[in-house]
Amino acid sequence: MWVFRVLTQGPSCVDVTQRERRSPSRDGRSMPPTRSSKCLVRLGAGQTVLSWLPARFNAVERRTPTETAGTRQACLKINCISTSDKPSQLGLTRARAKCEAEDSGSLTRTFAVPPKRHDTSRECAYALDAPRPGRRGEEMAASAKTLTELFRPLSPSTKIPIPKSSFSARTPEQKKTTETNKALARSNRDTRICTDRIEKSRAEGMEHAKLEELLVEETWSEALAGELQKPYAKNLCRFVEREMRGSVPIYPPPHLIFDALHRTPFHQVKAVIIGQDPYHGPGQAMGLAFSVPEGIKVPSSLVNILKELRQDVGCSLPSHGNLERWAVQGVLLLNAVLTVRRHQANSHAKKGWELFTDAIIQTISQKKTGVVFLLWGNSAQAKSRLIDESKHHILRAAHPSGLSANRGFFGCRHFSQTNQILEKLNLSPIDWQL
């Protein structure tokens, strides 16, 4: 057992005496202590108390403050269960703990001790800088502090601010990674909203949710306001909803139909890669043109895209074909048709999807400037009629499929050209590495 006695002779000084007691012997006599040490911990006004605890321990502390004439005292007893029988391996570490005051006036804390150790064979003192409580520029008298207030968590106005230097010291690559992770989290939230709406519809006795309810990204909903209410779009919605009820599965799953728009909000679009229709094999389609989930075999067209990427900008070949990281950086991976039947390529062509995706391209062309369009193959290049080339940049090449990649796709260097254009526009380039 480790016993701590804390004597506070003022609001900013804590004198800690540590003593290790052995368990009583079989005849009932108490064994003499084997180790004893003292340390002095100095606290700034408003600072929570730092306690010294044996390493590798979890301890529960109970403290009952008592008031005496002119001196505030508190006795602190901690029962610890050791994971080692060797006292020489025991060290002390400093742990900051949050306290919660109970109505009875007692305080309870649970410590999670970090692995760092300190030498306990000598006295030590620590000066802690902390903001003064109260209004700015005003100091609270030390004599006004009570022991209970010392252990009380800091209010929001007195919390120590994180220095800005810790953020400014981050490298551009670290900042880029942080932004990408935030964008992934945001897009995952939109996907969860779609899933929740589908489950709610099923709970209400409906086999599926309405298609227009699955477009939840706010910036695209505003940019395409009224598009899904047009006659062609209503016919398209009815067709897709019938297909959802059919015996043949459709891809991608309903909550991923609009995932290209969820991953790349309208205001973040920097580049557009146009595909044809989703992959029609089980587990392949994920709502992003050319992309497949991790763990799924990479299709030949995407293999050729990654080969050109390595040749162009030096990216290493990834072990997967998930292009989400491109999408959240501003690359809209848009198929001309957003759904397909299993094992039936182009089965949902000419049902209205082409008009809807054309409206997306036209909206980008009209409401944005400086977007780079990567048009691979004849079908994608036919969309150039929807793009104002005086405001945007178009890069043309052959389709990356195995049949045509050697006839103009390999060597097109579209990835490096895209970044060069973005940098000239003072926009952050795309990190193409997956």
Quaternary structure: single chain
Uncertain runs with pLDDT below 50, 5 residues or more? 1-23, 33-144
Total beta-strand segments: 16
H/E element sequence: EEEEEEEEEEHHHHHEHEHHEEHEHEH
Radius of gyration: 33 Å
Amount of beta strand: 15-25%
Query: Residue-averaged pLDDT, rounded?
Result: 74
* Classification by helices and strands: alpha/beta
Helix percent reads 25-40%
- Distance between the amino and carboxyl termini: 53 Å
**Shape summary:** globular
Explain the layout of strands and helices.
Elements: E1 2-10, E2 13-20, E3 35-42, E4 50-54, E5 60-67, E6 72-79, E7 92-96, E8 100-101, E9 107-110, E10 125-126, H1 147-150, H2 165-168, H3 172-203, H4 218-223, H5 231-245, E11 250-251, H6 259-263, E12 271-275, H7 300-313, H8 324-327, E13 331-335, E14 340-341, H9 353-367, E15 372-376, H10 378-381, E16 393-397, H11 414-424
Parallel strand pairs: 3-10, 12-13, 12-15, 15-16
Antiparallel strand pairs: 1-2, 2-3, 4-7, 5-6, 5-9, 8-9, 11-14
Catalytic activity: Hydrolyzes single-stranded DNA or mismatched double-stranded DNA and polynucleotides, releasing free uracil
GO biological process, one term: base-excision repair, AP site formation via deaminated base removal
Region (Disordered): 15-37, 161-187
Summarize the structure.
GO terms for molecular function: uracil DNA N-glycosylase activity. It is found in: Mitochondrion; Nucleus. The chain is built from eleven helices and 16 strands.
